[in-house]
Write a structure and sequence with these properties.
Strand order of the largest sheet: 1-2-3-6
Length: 218
């Protein structure tokens, strides 16, 4: 399979699965509702939304939501051009292509939420009925101000932090606490693969750097 087709296939697959899950959760669950996966209380579908970054982190500055949405779009655009240039190299490792395709797919998945969900859905609440798709009165927010839907929650175990740890000592700590989505998984998986298996790609000197080094040696 050509690398370009591989990238397109991975991006489409992740986007379809990610958005299907998000739309189902948004339109079938109340905010904060939890559903055990296979009856296990340590693996849950837990519907929450966040206005910030991956794993529920926030961007607490004025107009932070708008800035973050625009930053995501710019970063994804840069990544598209980067992958495009990467595909021109006949010797590029397929694993590296897959890694960047996963990162791009995850970024686009969350961009769709933050860009369009505020226009497409009514607000989600912990009571009443689930959110409605294309509500008659319009969505809960404006363009670029949508919330990212998260639903994967794995509170595996809780530990008591030692008292000698500054500020946090003596407090209980939940592992793993964040609620995330498939797009976050794709981004994290892609980054981990690059860090563990493809670090040499970034350590290679560019042609200009190699020529400069050669001239200095002469």
């Amino acid at each position: 399979m050509k690398n370009s087709n591989l990238v397109i296939g991975i991006v489409l697959l992740v986007l379809i699965v990610d958005q299907t899950i998000k739309v189902w959760v948004k339109t079938h669950m109340l905010y904060g509702e939890m559903i055990p996966i296979f009856g296990w209380d340590r693996a849950l579908i837990h519907f929450v939304e966040n206005e910030g970054m991956a794993f529920g982190q926030r961007f607490n500055i004025p107009h932070g939501k708008l800035i973050l949405s625009l930053f995501r779009i710019l970063a994804a655009t840069f990544l598209v051009f980067f992958i495009r240039s990467l595909l021109r190299s006949p010797e590029i490792a397929k694993g590296l292509v897959i890694s960047f395709a996963l990162i791009l797919a995850g970024a686009l998945g969350n961009i769709i939420d933050s860009t369009f969900y505020g226009l497409l859905f009514s607000a989600s609440y912990s009571h009443g009925l689930p959110a409605e798709f294309l509500p008659p009165g319009g969505g809960y927010s404006s363009f670029l101000h949508g919330k990212v839907v998260d639903m994967l929650y794995f509170p595996l175990f809780e530990i008591q932090l030692p008292s000698w740890i500054p500020r946090l000592g003596g407090r209980p700590m939940l592992f793993f606490g964040p609620v995330f989505n498939l797009a976050d998984v794709a981004i994290s998986w892609g980054v981990v693969q690059i860090l563990f298996f493809h670090r040499s790609f970034f350590q290679q000197a560019s042609p200009a750097e190699g020529q400069l080094q050669k001239e200095e040696e002469e």
